[in-house]
Amino acid sequence: MTDALLEVKHLDKHFGGLHVLKDINITVQEGEIVGILGPNGAGKTTLFNLLTGFIPADEGQVLLRGKSLREMRSNDIVGLGVARTFQLCRPFVGLTVLENVLVGSLGPRVKTDDIGARAMHLLDQVGLAGKAHTASELLSYGDLRRLEIARALATDPELLLLDEPFAGLGSSEIEALSDLIRKLHREQKLTIMLIEHKLREFMQLVSRVVAIDFGEVIAEGVPADIVNNQRVIEAYIGRQNPLELTQHA
Amino acid sequence: MKAFRGLDNFSVTGGLVALVLLGFLPTLFPGKYLIGVLTVAAIYGIWSVSWDFMSGLTGRENFGHSLFIGVGAYTAGFLNVQFGWGPWWSLPASMVVAAFFGLILGFPTLRLRGPYFALAMLSAAVIMQRLMLIFWEFTGGEEGIQDITPLIKDPLHYYWFVLALLGAITWFLAWMARSRWGLILRAIRGDEATCLAAGLPITTYKIASLIISAAFAGLGGALYAHYQLQVSPQLFAVVTSITIITMVYVGGMGTIFGPVGGALLLTLMTEGLRNFGEWRLMVYSLLLIFILFFLPNGIVAPTWNKIRNLFSQERP
Amino acid sequence: MEILIYGAVTSAIYALLAVGFTLIFGVARILNLAHGSFYALGAYGTYVLTSIAGLPLWSAALIAIAFVALFGVVVEKVLIRPLRHSQLGVLMISLAVALIVEQALFLVFGSEYRNVPSFVDSKINFGGVDVAGQRLLTLAVAAVAIGALYLFIQFTRLGSAILAISQDPEAAKYMGIPSDKIFSVVMAISAALAALAGVMAGPFLSVQPSMHLLPIVKAFAIVVVGGLGSIPGSIAAAFLLGYAETCVAYLISSSWTEIVSVLATLLMLVFRPAGIFGKRAAF
Predict the structure, then answer these.
(1) Beta-bridge mates of residue A221
(2) Which of the other chains make 3 or more beta carbon contacts under 8 angstroms with chain A?
(3) Taking CB atoms and an 8 Å limit, are B194 and A115 in contact across chains?
């Protein structure tokens, strides 16, 4: 049994009077694709922000291969091999697609001399090679998502955190992106954590789901079990169309 | 595959040609007056280039650049007059002192969003000017420090020296701007949080670029001190900072070489307006407003790019 | 005792300046570097109207203030609003305006100090200290003006609209609040307050073309300390700074007073960028 890659223990966070995350415990093994499911406002992005050092936790531990990430700065955490994307795509305005990926290649983990070739290779993998010299502000939404992933991959991560990668995409784009994520997972030997609020999107993609609501973990298990989990269904009724949860034929 | 643009040969050649032409100008139109104007223009060029490297690339406009200039100039004055050191010491000393100020000011202010950083630096420059007046026993007050020894006695040779420095600094900073430094600074302009997410220590880069910017500004200040042979608190004035910013805007923000053209253009233009001496500030402010509204990309850099594209089309 | 009174007077002037500065920022997100120019124009306007046009002081002052308010509205509408997408563009243009005004004043009036007449010429003995009546009047006027502003914002419809926009400009727009008109109103108020400060303080503070620069540096210091966009914060910080400066002036030397503001600014920015009352951090 491999040691866990990531261990989150008793993670807790308040924003003023709001208790955003309550005693969160999650373990992620190497090579897994774990889905974090929850309705809007459940605290999923806050979780990512805590894991990557963008905001400090009040209590609890985050361990990467046993090493505590708590007091570390976000760019140092990237140096340890944790990369993330953002919910709202943020390309570097004024830089081309290739330059965007190059910036990601300047971090501490990348040792290759020829980062230009490496960047082009990454763009090729996500299917953006043809647009390498386009201004990044001109990309379509689907392409922006790919750019985000390429940029995150450029930092040479072990653990990739994707924040709602399918939001705003049409169904064929979602399929294409899922295929891409699967392929990258295989080829780069990544461990992936994925946030979504619609289970349907990542049903086929993830091996395990952690469901969160109001800052608490309410269920954990394989997708098939989660779909039928009473607490999860209740969390969604009244917040979103519950049919989205069950319609996964 | 080359990851970074690097300096293209056309621009480098163009720059060298321009430098040589500028060097020859006084021989075509002899006279101390022209040499003086061109020397000042070249120094403004150094100031503008140093501003552009930090503020033009990161988009964090520094409204207190005059502080580094004044600090460099006063260092030269102190060392030369108060302590009696030889004038050549001014050059490295001014850079070190100005860089130091860049460091201590950078730490608290670079965390601030653009406008607040600008205002904080502006306030710092204003206060520095005040301090020079308050401590008049040491700094000479309004009169400043007089009787500074020149670096090179012959004005023409001094001009060539300054011109050479301008060329070297511009080349260096342009090279930096097109290397990974420049890429990171431009990314910082784009989105700081994403830079952090890419694993880059942005605070280090911001402060470092401010230090570099300050060092060269201070160097320019020392050069100015050894040209004017005196320094006064006026160097710290807001006017200087605004003039430089205007020159950069005219030249083209973030292009490095553009501001040099902007500096030359505007210095020569103001000499032409010499008769309206008191109106100079007015003209600059009006020009700035005009450019902000109508020509946000400046004049020099876009024109040069057009010329360059023309040439690359002609090649087979 | 002297410190108490003079400190209060200084604080009152600073409060007038700071409240106007923070108001236009809180509502329209504009850092207006021409704010000091409103102060200068208030003083010069009164000077011109009394000594050249020969108007009585009261009307001269009122007309000067009204003129500056109008000037502020025009500057905002014509020069600042088109550049609102770029905060730095706004900074640059307001600074350009400030410099143009300074130059214009210099060209017209020269650099010697000018004399703005006082409302009250006599000295009053207040608590055992002889104070110029004008200074006490300034204190009173400032208190009244800020009090009036407070009442206006709390109890009128226009005031509520202003509050709404400062909290959420987008939402306010969707509720049909005409933000452009409100910006003009706020700018007018902001400029009027600064001009009022100039009119009242002109008689005992220096009046020359570059008089706009220190007020803007101080106003910036005050709003950083008090919290950008917070009016109570600005008032509190104005008093803090006013008294700090007065104490320094009496106990050490008056040339050190400027250092107080910048030190306060830098310290605040380093340790608590949101200021004492601020919700919106400076970064």
Answers:
(1) A209
(2) B
(3) no
Chains C and B touch (3+ CB pairs under 8 A): yes
Asked if B132 has any chain C CB less than 8 Å from its own CB, the reply is no
Taking the alpha carbons at both ends of chain B, their separation in whole angstroms is: 23
Highest mean pLDDT among B229-243, C120-134, C225-239: B229-243
- The confidence score (pLDDT) of residue C283 equals 39
Share of chain A above pLDDT 70, in %: 93
pLDDT number for residue B290: 84
pLDDT of residue C71: 92
Distance CA A194, CA A206 (A): 8
CA distance C97 to chain B (A): 7
Residue B286: its chain C contacts at CB < 8 A?
96, 100
Q: How many CB atoms lie within 10 A of CB C156?
A: 11
Ordered by start, the domain boundaries in chain B are 2-314
Nearest to B123 among C79, C262, C283 (CB): C262
Is C88 in contact with B292 (Cβ distance < 8 A)? no
Over residues C15-54, the pLDDT tens digits come to: 999 998 988 888 887 888 899 999 999 988 888 888 877 7
Q: What tens digit of pLDDT does each residue of C130-179 get? A: 677 778 888 888 889 888 888 888 888 888 888 777 777 677 777 777 77
Establish if B128 touches chain A: CB-CB under 8 angstroms.
no
Q: A40: which strand partners?
A: none
Interface touch A78/B189, C-beta < 8 Å: no
Segment C63-81, tens digit of pLDDT: 889 999 999 999 988 888 8
DSSP state of A239: T
Higher-confidence residue of C272 and B270: namely B270
Closest residue in C to B60 (Cα–Cα): C88
Residues paired with residue A159 on neighbouring β-strands, in sequence order: A82, A191
Which residues of A fall within a CB distance of 8 Å from B1? 114, 116-117, 120
Are the C-beta atoms of residues A210 and A36 closer than 8 Å to each other?
Answer: yes
Q: Do C99 and B278 touch (CB under 8 A)?
A: no
Closest partner residue to A107 (CB to CB) among B2, B3, B199 is B199
| pTM metric for this prediction | 0.82
Cα B172 from Cα A227, distance rounded (Å): 61
Q: Three-class SS of residue C101?
A: helix
Model confidence band, residue C263 (pLDDT cutoffs 50, 70, 90): confident
Residue to substitute from A74, A124, A136, interface B, most B β-carbons within 10 A? A74
Chain C positions in Cβ-Cβ contact with residue B65 (cut-off 8 Å) = none
Taking the Cβ of residue B179 and every Cβ of chain A, the question of whether any pair is shorter than 8 Å is answered with no
CATH number for region B2-314 = 1.10.3470
Q: Do A104 and B199 touch (CB under 8 A)?
A: yes
- The residue extents of the domains of chain C are 2-111+130-208
Q: Residue B140 is encoded by which pair of tokens?
A: 């000479």
Residues in chain B with CB shorter than 8 Å from the CB of A154 are 198
Mean pLDDT of C249-272: 74
Helix (H) or strand (E) holding B62: none
Q: Is the ipTM of this complex over 0.90?
A: no
Residue numbers in chain A where pLDDT is lower than 70: 1-3, 237-249
CA–CA gap between residue A186 and residue C247 (Å, rounded): 70
Q: What is the DSSP string of C6-74?
A: HHHHHHHHHHHHHHHHHHHHHHH----TTHHHHHHHHHHHHHIIIIIS---HHHHHHHHHHHHHHHHHH
A21: phi then psi, degrees, rounded to nearest 5: -130, 130
Query: Are A99 and B2 in contact (CB < 8 Å)?
Result: no
Task: Report residue C235's pLDDT band, with 50, 70 and 90 as the boundaries.
Answer: confident
Backbone angles phi, psi at C189, to 5 degrees: -60, -45
Say if residues A36 and A193 touch (Cβ distance below 8 Å): yes
Q: Which chains lie within 8 Å of chain C at 3 or more CB pairs, if any?
A: B
